[in-house]
Each structure stands twice: as C-alpha cells, then as structure tokens.
C-alpha cells in the first residue's frame, strides 16, 4: 500500500505562489520553511526579485491570480504596490515578498531567518 502525500493549505499556497513567480520569470526563488521556528510569524516566506518595478508588479499580479484561481483566496493584506520596490502579499500563514533586485540585497530577508529551512526553485 502506497501512502499518499498529504499537503496542508499553507504548503499548497506557497507552491502556488512559486508557480506564479515562475510564470513571470522571477529571479532566485526561495521558500523559507518557518514552521519549526518558535518566534515565526508565518509557516512560509516565499521570496523572489526582478530587475524592474514593472516586473515586480507583474509577478505580484501573477501570484495573486494563481492563488485565487486555486483556492479563491485574496491576500489578507498587500503592501508596496504603489512603487513596486518591495511588494508584500500576506496570506497569513504564507507571506510573499517580491523585491526589486537592489532592495532584496539591501534588506536581506533570508538572512534574518537563518534557522529556516530554505528551498530554492528555478525560474520557468
């Protein structure tokens, strides 16, 4: 008998976000698994960057569309859409960060969560 892999909602939403990022050619996609960190604010952070504000916004729109198509869920909160330097989409258990390249390097979000399990993904 083969056990089926059970996937929880936050894992599924994080995978949908990754797909949305890949659709718009996000760079250096990573998923930080924060579930084993006591002080974490979410289950996952999903992070990528792009070279222009236009592409950052396109990636954010793609992520929102992918998640809404699959689970009919809008982000609880959205930040940064006006300037497109760092867009944050908050799905409560999954927080998506889409940076312009220079802002990602400056803020170093991955470094702040050094205890997280990090998985990298290829752009599509």
UniProtKB/TrEMBL annotation:
It is found in: Cytoplasm. It comes from the Bacteria. Functions as a ribosomal silencing factor. Interacts with ribosomal protein uL14 (rplN), blocking formation of intersubunit bridge B8. Prevents association of the 30S and 50S ribosomal subunits and the formation of functional ribosomes, thus repressing translation. InterPro entries: Iojap/RsfS/C7orf30 (IPR004394), NT_sf (IPR043519). The keyword Methyltransferase does not apply. It holds the Pfam family RsfS. NCBIfam families: rsfS_iojap_ybeB. PANTHER family: IOJAP SUPERFAMILY ORTHOLOG, MITOCHONDRIAL ASSEMBLY OF RIBOSOMAL LARGE SUBUNIT PROTEIN 1. Keywords: Cytoplasm, Repressor, Translation regulation. This is Ribosomal silencing factor RsfS. The lineage of its organism: Bacteria, Pseudomonadati, Bacteroidota, Sphingobacteriia, Sphingobacteriales. Gene3D superfamilies: Beta Polymerase, domain 2.
